[in-house]
Amino acid sequence: MANNQRTEAAIQEKWRVALENAGAQPEIAAKMAELSYDQTKIDEGKALLAQTRQVYDKNRTEDVETTEASAKFKTDRELLEDTFRNHRKRARVVFRNDPVMLKRLGIDEGVPTAYPKLIETTSVFYTEAAKPNVIDKLARLGITAEEI
To answer: How many whole angstroms separate alpha carbon 32 and alpha carbon 23?
Structure first.
């Protein structure tokens, strides 16, 4: 139960100290040998601990990378949403009297909040907006082909 409240690093350090003491302290080594834990077994334990430490370090690195990737995704998503909302508002002004074009651009309804639907709507908008006849009209309100 005490191990449940310790960090993985603290548990590994406890194991390292125990294995080190079992190999370096003659009294402890003698008691361990009585229990069939000779130097060979202790060396096996040290090897296993080293392997455990490698896996632990790799997992920590992956956790950091995951956190960084998540933060970047969040930033990129916010930028995409802000840009899309801005372009969408401008397009709605340009095509306010053309319900067919509003539907083609996917801006005849509200902005979806669910991520998959938002990506789909954004994709439809920019695919249609990139067409020459549409981009020419959007250029009136400052939406350029480069932005699209």
So the answer is: 9
